[in-house]
Give the backbone structure.
Amino acid sequence: MSTSPFWVSAFLDFVPAGFERGVEFWQDVTGYTLSERRGVDGAFATLVPPDGDDYLRVQRLGGGDGRVHLDLHVESPTIAAEAAIELGAHVLMRHEQGYVVLRSPGGFVFCFVRHHASRRPAPTTWGGGRSVVDQVCLDLPPEHHDAEVAFWQALTGWDLEGPDGSGSPELSRLRSPDEQPLRWLLQRLDGPGGAVAAHLDLAADDREAEAARHVALGATVTRVHEHWSVLTDPVGTTYCITGRRP
């Protein structure tokens, strides 16, 4: 049985004090509605697009720092987890509901789940322009880069492509299937130290106008590069807006 995910969801994991504000911000950014809350004390919810299947979810953490983690949707989480263990991952929890929580060799938290989905949502239109959360970027400290790239390539079975054409040699890409909602970018960080993390990227018709919209919603622009802008949301979550066609 293949361990290649047929769908990938991204979780925005917020600290307790930032959960409500973070959820409100990402609802406004995406234009998605919030599902009924679930889990212990309503710690989980889904951002539901007006069309297609969901792929963005939120979680209130019990402690620690905010982060992004991924759910990989597979036919058998148990079998996929065993394959991940052979590739160097470590199991953090096997839940009675069937999902498995793991940590990659470089320390990135992810889950295998069964939930079925297949229809990618369309971009959202804002006054003539469009945007959509369409990419996850794994931020890889240099000491973890090669092993982590090899791990994810072997686990997903997706082709690895070199520098992505942006003129940035630190970037490579795993070519996920076209029907998936999230592209996968792999970024070699400049400095060593720390575990592998992730951030989300948006594609926008007008990057400058999209950034201004986010700032009006409470975000802060921290850096502007040739092909992307780096922002933080009101509770400190880092993400990017790119000039890719949505």
